[in-house]
Write a sequence for this structure.
């Protein structure tokens, strides 16, 4: 039993099925889907409120999605912890600045990789809130509820991602 | 203690959010999708791990949630969408996905595995979410409601009973798994 926790990886089918079961518990115990971008919106709102004062909370978007430390915010902290525990148990935890594929395709310069990651992150955060969810909120939680917007969003995530990855690294047709 | 008590208790919900996150982060790492190389491999169509994880989660999650719904224990929470919001936002997300090599959940997970570039990614995601909140009033009055979708759910769109669509999607996902295995993807 213990070797399950120390294995470097599980079958993607099995790990995915585990995520499906986890989502049952969220629907039953919390009565909402599992999504990750809401917590980032809360962080942005709380940081902005801290810097510029009370007016932030009057912004129309933050009246709709009130920035606070709630289920969605602690979820993100939990994900960091869970992945940390898993990688330490499996002996794969390692501090890396530039992922191997990026280093081979673009170069090993950490500052450049950090700049690309920051710009990519800004587009991910903007796009996720624009579309009303991310790969977990739309891509998994929404599609499994058969939400039309989520199926469209998931297809658009991959169309945009495949096109831009192709432009960056070259299209590779099998 | 009833379900409503747990659902309305802020402390219980914060604890559940943390536990759910730990389990989710653990599973994402074990699935391999907290790795930049695996995600970029999916977007370059050389590694199908991400699609296998997502579709397995959808298959099991969908059947369970619809069973729980018919038992009256779970509710469906769908949001309506539109071309201006879902399609445009989705394409912006996709472009960022290819640059960053992580999505919001897997970026947080990658931070936990020691990926320092993911740390810049999570800062960027919060900045991007903040930019959207700033732009929201103008976007809401210009683009977001353009081309509203004709239905909230796929069963509604097709005029079919949810159970029929659940069965159809399940068959489709299993078919895709079979194709991926047959082609060695």
């Amino acid at each position: 039993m213990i070797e399950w926790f120390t294995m470097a990886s599980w079958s993607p089918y099995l790990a995915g099925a585990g995520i499906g079961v986890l989502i049952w518990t969220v629907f039953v115990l919390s009565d909402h889907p599992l999504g990750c971008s809401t917590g980032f919106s809360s962080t942005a709102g709380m940081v902005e409120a801290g810097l510029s004062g009370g007016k932030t909370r009057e912004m129309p978007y933050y009246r709709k999605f009130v920035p606070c430390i709630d289920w969605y915010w602690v979820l993100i902290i939990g994900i960091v912890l869970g992945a940390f525990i898993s990688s330490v148990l499996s002996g794969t935890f390692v501090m890396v600045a530039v992922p191997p594929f990026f280093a081979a395709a673009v170069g090993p310069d950490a500052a450049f990789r950090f700049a690309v990651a920051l710009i990519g992150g800004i587009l991910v955060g903007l796009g996720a809130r624009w579309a009303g969810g991310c790969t977990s909120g739309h891509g998994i939680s929404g599609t499994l509820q058969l939400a039309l917007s989520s199926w469209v969003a998931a297809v658009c995530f991959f169309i945009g991602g495949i096109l831009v990855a192709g432009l960056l690294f070259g299209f590779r047709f099998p | 203690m009833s379900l409503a008590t747990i659902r309305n208790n802020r402390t219980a919900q914060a604890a559940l959010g943390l536990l759910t996150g730990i389990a989710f982060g653990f599973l994402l790492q074990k699935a391999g999708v907290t790795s930049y190389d695996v995600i970029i491999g999916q977007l370059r169509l050389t590694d199908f791990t991400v699609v296998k994880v997502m579709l397995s989660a959808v298959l099991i999650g969908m059947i369970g949630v619809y069973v729980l719904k018919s038992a009256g224990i779970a509710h469906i929470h769908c949001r309506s969408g539109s071309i201006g919001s879902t399609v445009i936002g989705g394409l912006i997300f996709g472009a960022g996905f290819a640059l960053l090599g992580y999505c919001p959940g897997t970026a947080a997970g990658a931070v936990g595995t020691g990926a320092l570039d993911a740390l810049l990614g999570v800062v960027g995601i919060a900045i991007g979410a903040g930019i959207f909140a700033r732009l929201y009033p103008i976007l809401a009055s210009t683009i977001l409601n353009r081309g509203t979708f004709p239905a909230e759910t796929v069963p509604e769109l097709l005029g079919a009973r949810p159970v029929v669509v659940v069965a159809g999607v399940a068959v489709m996902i299993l078919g895709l798994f079979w194709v991926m295995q047959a082609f060695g993807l």
In short: Chain B touches chain A through 126 residues (CB under 8 Å). Chain B has nine helices and no strands.
